[in-house]
């Protein structure tokens, strides 16, 4: 149960002697055991006792565990430690050694994932900047490639042979399915990742965060989804290379059996997400045997390929079916590319793609493309490069267990009627000039941006960036934590989004009701509120800590200003001091007016003062704060996968066609009562309207009284069936479930002195049109919200009617999406990390 082990030799000795090992997951233990034995993540001794009892009384499990431990010992025996050490010494002496990068995954077959691995490592090797190799492994484990598969891949064969002499590469890049990362063996470890649906299983995300140093993705879509699903480590879009064989110009067109003049082509696995069912249905609907068209369908046999059943059903449904030529086998590479030479139009109706290689290859071959530009395809499919099929997001018919009830995986369902129109239009003869312009633009985009050489260089740049940032700044954060407080939530988001890059110690306040047990990195609770003052114990503890940076989260109710000033002065001789201001204007604390003007001298001793908006920066500058210590870092934005309101309504048994929501706490300045008044009028137009404020009851008397006031208003207006109050302090995921059931968000605040709102960002994360007032707190969101002049029921009524206009609603949601992704906590945490690191490196 040790918490600090550099290696753990006694564990290996026990494993060698055939004794089952149960250990606490800490320090080097997981790496030493490498999947053998049993690891526990918490010291719950009742649970550990149960594990021991089961282990000793279940002989098959006991024997399997011991055998796995023997396998681990054999693997260790094969490590040439002396050779590795001698090579390291030699490299240090000569100074000529190149950094070793090893691709790990399948590479030798025609499987697209294997081809991507092969092309990437060959491109990295061609750059001649690193020592490249490729190791043969798959999701279930290592394997030996079929030698015949290597005969026509001489470059990859050489790189594979090199891997046998490299036990611990400097860098590993893995790409396999399912992703396996718990046993990565590089100095730095990366994943090359593609995904097709909106939700990535939490098991994958947890393992990525735990075992990897970074992820390179195949498209912007995959990058967005990783961040949405909780990835905290560095992630960047690498893209894929797209190329045709060197001899493509000499390849003859594929010889089809069909004599039809117009040939549509589709190449895929025929997995459900590939949308072949939609394509076939549309093709049968659009054409008959009399039409001069043929669909050439290239798939390969697999358990998910049900083309035969689909064709059989459609042939019975349509008595005079169009011509289909189905190729359901592996064909030589040259024949595969000859399909593009044969095609007049490539059609791709996938419900989701990590990238969409066949589409990009068709564009490079100058074949016009009909495609639904969703997911990874959106990186290169647009109105200038392709004929676009409309789509809508629907719950995915997925075999993946998301492991989280809030995470409903979505994919893009192509509009079959729109597809039929495009197929008919192409077959009847489109404008040749426009078609040629489109294929030329597609070719130019693919040939200029999507090359393996550029992708390889992006990988090297990304690896260097991550390597450069390996030193973890040590930060002591003084903040509210694990309590009903907006700033506690803000701090939690920052810490969760950067904990893989920053080593945090949290120093929270005492005298609050905890939401859960504090985490291990939470230190003593040594301060209370502005009314009590006396931060001496806190200051002494911070000076003794091994953190080099002290970061205060500031609101006027937290600290007595003179006491804070003395603490800053005391700390500044020993630590780098930073403060994030969530409010800057003069305020009232109880019956006292307080102002930052009173501690300007002490604030100027800080290394960084951070605000959320330009207004706050200007104010601090105006009262005498030095310009060079002022920074603007916008409030982070929480991100969730997009879910339709109709889906959430069905799930929550909400029957109203129009649901309006609010979020935050029940407080007088939030404008909840005015929304209730607006609903009383709106119900005359929208008879089943429902207002659902997802607002927690604050501990203060003011909050409890305001909720009573709102309840009385509902009763007086006799609209009880049109208002549903949610008053519990919910987990974020549960709150989001309710907000995603809404069609419109309303945040009509009255004047507020706060610098930023975390609540409105939660509303934006639901990706619904959001109505706010024109308050300074919402100034930075004016481009992605509909803002009204004041907190007034008539203004709210007009705003609701405005945002229900379909075109305006769509525009507002698109702007909201952009804001959400541009200001995600992933981006905000990166800004804090860069600031921390700059001070850390300066001290070093």
From TrEMBL:
Q: Name one Pfam family in it.
A: Glycos_transf_1
Q: Name one GO molecular function term.
A: glycosyltransferase activity
Domain Glycosyl transferase family per the UniProt entry, residue ranges:
2-68, 257-389, 647-818
Task: Give the protein name, as stated in the record.
Answer: Glycosyl transferase family 1 domain-containing protein
Which organism does this record belong to?
Answer: Eubacterium plexicaudatum ASF492
